[in-house]
Amino acid sequence: MTVRTVLQSADITRALTRISHEILESNRGGSDLVLLGIPTRGVILAQRLGRILESIDPAVGESLASVGSLDVTMYRDDLGAQPTRAPSPTQLPASGIDGKTVVLVDDVLYSGRTIRAALDALGDHGRPRAVRLAVLVDRGHRELPIRADFVGKNLPTSAEERINVRLREIDGIEEVSIES
């Protein structure tokens, strides 16, 4: 087994800062913007994006209040094939998502099935004006017609390789590596 580090802490911070600027530009500011992280690491990334958005545009001001999480466990189409993980609570901003631009945040985009499940889950909680997708890593191999709007790093991989995202809040280390 070979492990190759492709992003270190500074690279991850730079990618998240760039994504934050792209989100603000795309949304024409921070108004009516909600970031929803997909557990586990997507939630941490959404929180970081919220803090960066707030530092870039102080008018965003309440961006941290507009950061939440969206659990997709029970919406997955592969529940029988994957080991079951305990569902995490979905936490939406008090103002809800109706009429807002929702940015789904995840660590790695692979087949697109997690995002399809997130879209299903989102529909049970309201009707956003628009839904966007931000991912730290896009590794290709899509099985569904889903594309990220904001990508930190495109990492073409083989299906046999594994992308490991480690964040200091969960793992005590900050890196993205490819394991082959």
Automatic annotation (TrEMBL):
The keyword Ubl conjugation does not apply. Pfam families: Pribosyltran. Keywords: Glycosyltransferase, Transcription, Transcription regulation, Transferase. GO terms for molecular function: uracil phosphoribosyltransferase activity. A motif (PRPP-binding) lies at residues 102-114. CDD domains: PRTases_typeI. InterPro entries: PRTase-like, PRTase_dom, PyrR, PyrR_bifunctional. Its EC number is 2.4.2.9. Regulates the transcription of the pyrimidine nucleotide (pyr) operon in response to exogenous pyrimidines. Also displays a weak uracil phosphoribosyltransferase activity which is not physiologically significant. Belongs to the purine/pyrimidine phosphoribosyltransferase family. PyrR subfamily. This is Bifunctional protein PyrR. The lineage of its organism: Bacteria, Bacillati, Actinomycetota, Actinomycetes, Micrococcales.
